[in-house]
Every structure is written in structure tokens, then in C-alpha cells.
């Protein structure tokens, strides 16, 4: 696969604080890329630097192998879909979509017939045929999202940046638009770089997932690799499916405030030692149940459960205040019943833990 975009040690600071701290990555052409990171990790800054709305302090950005330094945003061939859609409320759907073409500095489309055809093609692409004359104030959130996308795609960008494109939609629509966006991208055949704070959205949508942690790329890998093998404890934390403990490794034991966990697993190099166990790798047993040599246990007081149909998530208070989460898959079974404030053993296999440090 050929590379569409490459960033080399891109740094961008605001008032001395780095928002992007030597960002390095390459993106393949014709792919859906998800960029996951918590609020404040630098996602929007990264998109703005790629689009040319912000100048990096240092480093370089190559687009199809050519440096973008000094190239105006309009001339980069990179489209941008803003978080709040940024549509013109006084213009119709078709006028919003056509706007991008009419106002191009280079090669504006002034022939109204050509313009109308291009707008029609784009509305068909995003599934909005027949909505040409509607006011953008009189369509749904999902439809506004499509108008914003069509307005970007009509300029035939060679890559599209989307800043939390589903963030403004309600939950039902958000999950439907996931597959819509993927399908639209496949039809136009260019790379989409989709920024999100939602781990499930990133894992579901990305052919490749980049994880941004405090202005640095902590991991760039396929969804299943990020999920099963997070590169750092911070990445494991963003995924919302690991119990994480700080502490230190002493010989073959991880020692932390929550307890001592004997190790039988390889360690990942990391500056901060941490121990991670996935919610769904833990079983809940009576305190008196016996333990096999390949298992680790701690004890916790049951707080509450959340039933979600296919699974039930249970929360336990550990000594020292840490809340520990267990996900039990149900497959036809009724959810187990635990007694509030009762103490249980929480058990997992040594080899299922991830150890950093
Ligand atoms: P995200 O989109 O992941 O939430 P941002 O890229 O918006 O993160 O912000 C990253 C960091 O840079 C934050 O600490 C933010 O406060 C800071 N920052 C972003 N834009 C500006 C700006 N224009 N001026 C000053 N600080 C900024
Ligand atoms: Mg942002």
C-alpha cells in the first residue's frame, strides 16, 4: 500500500506547553484511520496542523511524498469536516454543498450546470438525493453531518480529516453513521482520518488505529492488536476494559497498594510500572474457594452491577479505595446475584495480566 501522509517529529506548542510532542506516523492510502485520544491529548491540533490552519514549530509533513510547508490550506487537497459541521444556516442543502466549489481560489466552478451536476453526484454519494432545496436548519443531525461531508467531498480532496464527526449525534444515529461513513469512504477511495474520544468508535471503524497520549503517538496498529495488546498502560486506560494498578516489579511479583500479584508473563518496556487485567478475564468466587497455582486473586466488597443484555459488569471496592470492574458474559444465563457489601474473591490467570515496567 502506498503512503498518503507522513509526519516526521512534528512539534506544536502553545505558550511553552507542547500540544504535539514529536508526532511521527505514516498513513496508507485508501484506508479508514481512527485517531483515538482523551480530551486535551492534541487531536484537534494534529488535524489543524495537517490541514494547514496551524503552522508546526518544527518537523515536517509530507503529502504524497511532497512537503506541505507554506502550502495554503485550500491548495493542499485535504478536506476537513468540522466537529459542529459549520454549515451556513441561511443556505439550502445544495447551496451549502456547492459553496466549496464556487469559492475555490484555484479553478472555481462557475458553470452552473457543471456545478449542479457535481452537487447532485455528491448528494447521491452521501444518500441525500431529493434534499437539494431543504434549508439546513430543517434537516436532522445525521443529515446535516452528510451535508458537511458532501461539501468537503465535492472539492475532490485526496484525503479527508474528520474532527469527532459523530460527537454531535445521538447514540442511535451515531452507531448507524459509523457504517455509513465507512461505506462513503469506500465509494470515494481516499483516506479518512477520523478523530474520536470514543474507544468503541475507534476500534469499530479504524482499519488502522492511532492512539494519541499527551501529544505523542502511543500506538499505531490494527484494532484487535490495540485491544488485546495495548502498547502502554495509558492506552490500556483509554480502552475502558482494563483494571489498572500502579506499583513496582520486585523479582517475579508485582507489588502495589492493591496487593501482590505473582507474575508469569512477559513485561512490556515502560517508564512507569503498571499491571493491567481485562474486565472480562476475571471470575468472581466465594472467598473460601481454592486457588490453582496459575491463578492470582484479590478480594473486594461488592458495590453494584450493570446489566447490558449480553454481559453484566460488576463493581467491587478493594482495600485502599480502588474500584475493580468485572465483566461476565451471560450467553442465555441469568445474571448472577451478588450481595451488597459482601466480600468476594476476584480471580484471574497470571498469564492473562499485562505487565508494564
Ligand atoms: P483534543 O482535540 O484532543 O481535545 P486539542 O488539540 O484541542 O486536544 O488541545 C491539546 C492541548 O493544546 C490542550 O492542552 C489545549 O488546551 C491546547 N490548545 C489547543 N489549541 C490551543 C490554542 N489555540 N491556544 C492555546 N492552547 C491550545
Ligand atoms: Mg478536539
TrEMBL record:
Protein species of origin: Rhizobium jaguaris
Protein name: ABC transporter ATP-binding protein
Occurrences of domain ABC transporter (ranges): 5-239
Keywords, in A-Z order: ATP-binding, Nucleotide-binding, Plasmid, Transport
PROSITE patterns named among the record's database cross-references: ABC_TRANSPORTER_1, ABC_TRANSPORTER_2
Sequence similarity: Belongs to the ABC transporter superfamily.
Any one GO biological process: quaternary ammonium group transport
GO MF, one annotated term: ATP binding
SMART domains: AAA
Name of a matching Pfam family: ABC_tran
Amino acid at each position: 500500500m502506498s503512503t498518503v501522509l507522513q509526519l516526521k517529529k512534528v512539534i506544536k506548542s502553545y505558550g511553552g506547553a507542547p500540544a504535539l510532542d514529536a508526532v511521527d506516523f505514516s498513513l496508507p492510502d485508501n484506508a479508514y484511520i481512527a485517531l483515538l485520544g482523551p480530551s486535551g491529548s492534541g487531536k484537534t491540533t494534529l488535524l489543524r496542523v495537517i490541514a494547514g490552519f496551524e503552522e508546526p514549530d518544527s518537523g515536517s509533513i509530507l503529502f504524497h511524498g511532497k512537503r506541505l510547508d507554506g502550502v495554503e490550506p485550500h491548495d493542499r487537497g485535504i478536506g476537513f469536516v468540522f466537529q459542529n459541521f459549520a454549515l451556513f444556516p441561511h443556505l439550502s442543502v445544495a447551496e451549502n454543498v456547492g459553496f466549496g466549489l464556487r469559492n475555490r481560489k484555484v479553478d472555481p466552478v462557475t458553470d452552473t450546470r457543471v456545478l449542479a451536476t457535481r452537487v447532485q453526484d455528491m448528494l447521491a454519494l452521501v444518500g441525500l438525493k431529493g434534499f437539494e432545496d431543504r434549508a439546513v436548519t430543517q434537516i436532522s443531525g445525521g443529515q446535516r453531518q452528510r451535508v458537511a461531508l458532501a461539501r468537503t467531498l465535492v472539492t475532490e480532496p485526496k484525503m479527508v480529516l474528520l474532527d469527532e464527526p459523530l460527537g454531535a449525534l445521538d447514540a442511535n444515529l451515531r452507531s448507524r453513521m459509523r457504517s455509513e461513513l465507512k461505506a462513503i469512504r469506500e465509494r470515494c477511495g481516499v483516506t479518512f482520518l477520523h478523530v474520536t474520544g470514543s474507544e468503541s468508535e475507534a476500534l469499530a471503524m479504524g482499519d488502522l488505529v492511532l492512539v494519541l497520549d499527551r501529544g505523542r503517538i502511543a500506538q499505531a496498529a490494527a484494532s484487535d492488536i490495540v485491544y488485546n495488546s495495548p502498547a502502554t498502560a495509558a492506552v490500556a486506560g483509554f480502552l475502558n476494559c482494563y483494571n489498572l494498578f500502579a506499583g513496582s516489579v520486585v523479582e517475579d511479583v508485582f507489588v502495589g497498594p492493591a496487593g501482590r500479584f505473582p507474575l508469569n508473563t512477559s513485561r512490556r518496556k515502560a517508564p512507569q510500572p503498571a499491571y493491567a487485567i481485562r474486565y472480562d478475564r476475571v471470575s468472581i468466587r466465594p472467598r473460601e474457594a481454592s486457588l490453582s497455582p496459575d491463578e492470582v486473586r484479590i478480594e473486594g466488597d461488592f458495590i453494584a452491577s450493570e446489566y447490558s443484555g449480553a454481559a453484566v459488569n460488576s463493581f467491587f471496592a478493594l482495600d485502599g479505595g480502588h474500584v475493580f470492574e468485572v465483566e461476565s458474559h451471560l450467553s442465555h444465563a441469568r445474571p448472577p446475584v451478588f450481595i451488597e457489601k459482601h466480600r468476594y474473591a476476584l480471580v484471574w490467570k497470571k498469564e492473562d495480566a499485562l505487565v508494564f515496567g
